[in-house]
Amino acid sequence: MNKEQLRKMREQIENRENAVKLVLDEYCSLDGCPCGFKEFVFWAGKKQGPGWMDNIQNQLVKSARELDCFSKIEDFEKEYWLEGAYYCKNCGTRWNYFSQEWRMLAFQERLLIIDGDDPNKLFDEVIGDEIFATAGSEPAGRRVLNLEQWVEFMLGRKH
Ligand SMILES: [Zn+2]
Fold it and tell me: CA-CA distance, 21 to 130, in Å (whole number)?
């Protein structure tokens, strides 16, 4: 990456939504969908809480569900906190979408490959620095990434 590209990337990741969009755009232009990137599988599916939520993860799940390659599966098995299921038209992967209300009007969002392995095992514990937590329940003992570091992590750079 040259300086100009780096500068552009920095501008784009000024906010969470743009950073997520940049990462998803990159996956889709490389592979047609994000399903094959283990960083995506990890970050979209990792466990949140109990007393906190990862705002980058929530945005990632929200934006991913809106991708053209994902279509809704109407007939999915009902399960606690399971809000929907998706089928990837590009690669055939099927995803469950969980949205757990962990406190009033605050949700922990997750996308998990149906019958897939536990995504938490893909990487050591790491979270974004945009965390919303109940006082005293902040996650501890994990590597924390700011937005720029998060983009680099997701794109497999420097980590
Ligand atoms: Zn896919």
Answer: 16
